[in-house]
Specification:
Layout (H helix, E strand, L loop, with lengths): L1 E5 L2 H14 L3 E6 L6 H16 L6 H18 L24 H18 L4 E6 L6 H16 L4 E7 L3 H8 L3 H4 L4 E2 L4 H14 L6 H11 L3 H14 L7 H24 L4 H13 L4 E2 H8 L3 H13 L3 E2 L5 E4 L4 H8 L8
Parallel strand pairs: 1-4, 1-5, 2-3, 3-4
Antiparallel strand pairs: 6-8, 7-8
Helix pairs in contact: 2-3, 2-4, 3-4, 4-5, 5-6, 8-9, 9-10, 9-11, 10-11, 12-13, 12-15
Amino acid sequence: MVGLRGVGKTVLLDRMREDAEKVGIQTMRVEAPESRSLPAILAPQIRQALLRLSRNEQAKDFAKRALRGLAGFAKALKLKYQDIEVGFDFDPEPGLADNGDLEHDLQALLEASGEAAQKAGTALVIFVDELQYVEENELAALITALHRAAQRRLPVVLVGAGLPQLRGRMGRAKSYAERLFDFPEIGPLSPAAAQTAIAKPAEAEGVKVNGDALERIVHETHGYPYFLQEWGKHAWDIARLSPITLGDVAAASTSAVAALDESFFRVRFDRLTPLEKRYLRAMAELGSGPHRSGDIAEQLKRDVTALGPTRNQLIAKGMIWSPSHGDTAFTVPLFDEFMRRIMPGDDWRT
């Protein structure tokens, strides 16, 4: 069981799933949005996996039993989680995952599903992106169910991806989570890897990129994978001839930043309350970070404790995280520069 956190997580999650499916492993891929419950996003995917397992002769009866458990699970929890929508292929089996208690029922459902996968000689891997958005009580139920599957040596595995606060959320949900999961952190690419990420695709199309141009892209993007894509795209569009030059990248930087401002950064900014915007602007005034909570509070002329709820809300929204106790950092690079552009001057202080 693995929890991934950091930049580039979604790409890696998808690649891992593709590799798992190539060797016949049953997979489920969901993204945890802020507005949906865990049972709602899991139930349809579990149904599809079980229907596939039911076509295996050795696993057929176990998969059908798990499908009966899924029917009971959905019916029992539908009143509590009104967003559950899943088709029923079998009538519920009384007493199987139908108590109406998420922690108990999810454990029973994953056990039955794991037994089916085991009989089929495969594994059931649940890939969940944006895992940090799952409510802590629902996260606790998922961890408990996976713990029970591990104790019974059933082949049920979670590969979760999320922002840096994921480790802390899972630890709060269940204190043993950090012993149960690995938490590899996916950081920015190294300068050499970032240059390769730009140069290699271009070379495949017969285009060279000058060394100083590559260095400028790495400097501008901080090695952040999505930003590398943006700078690469804009440099490609601007350059008229091969090789792509430093001048091309300089021009591309202007258009890349504008594109990020209108989409990537603006989408995040528009989700914020006025006080949250001021908090991030105060962070930006101090630089790229990380910053001490007291220094941010001093910029706003507020007490640290009074700003605690705002800081927690920003962490929950994935805007900031705490790399160490008392420190606060942006979850993506260049956001401090965006905040200074979109809230210039000193009016934000009042």
